[in-house]
Design a protein that fits this description.
heterodimer, A: mainly beta, 6-stranded mixed sheet, 9 strands, 43% strand, B: mainly beta, 7-stranded mixed sheet, 4-stranded antiparallel sheet, 0% helix
Amino acid sequence: QSALTQPASVSGSPGQSITISCTGTSSDVGVYNYVSWYQQHPGKAPKLMIYDVSNRPSGVSNRFSGSKSGNTASLTISGLQAEDEADYYCSSYTSSNTLVLFGGGTKLTVL
Amino acid sequence: QLQLQESGPGLVKPSETLSLTCTVSGGSISSSSYYWGWIRQPPGKGLEWIGSIYYSGSTSYSGSTYYNPSLKSRVTISVDTSKRQFSLKVGSVTAADTAVYYCATVLDYHYYMDVWGKGTTVTVSS
């Protein structure tokens, strides 16, 4: 069982918007704005998509956005495209001596 | 631009020690900006945080390590500045340690992983 909870799968049609949730606790997501999101295509290394809850690295499409409310962070992808089909992982800083936690991952299917 | 490359044996026997290195290029391994981390991904499963090390000559907590509690008793992460490498050792391996192993930078004060190696596959089998 992962430390952060994500839905196993989500799906959407091209052009639609989807949201992936990431639920943690008051020791991680709920108290720190250090939530990041990663996209992983099959056979590839993960790619940073969002950091510090809602910031996009240079080169990442503005169709990707992040937010947080309480112990739950969210990744929203608008205007879904076929190339967005991938696995998505959230991560958070934790006040324990572990430093970082991952979510279990969410498989996005573009119908 | 910072780049990372994992290397090490692709096959390890059960009960032995898995050893991997990550070579840093395009930047300093003594940078105060980064933790140096290891993440793994078993076949068909999600990412698992293994741990990280912070190495900088300019801070009191240089050399501090942070491990996943589920692996802590078997894992050691260290830095070799002369070789511009950081390494991972996992002892007493079993088939459950079979995975793609990634090294990555973890940005200090923000704790996100912005640079990843391509990953290396390690299989535990006799």
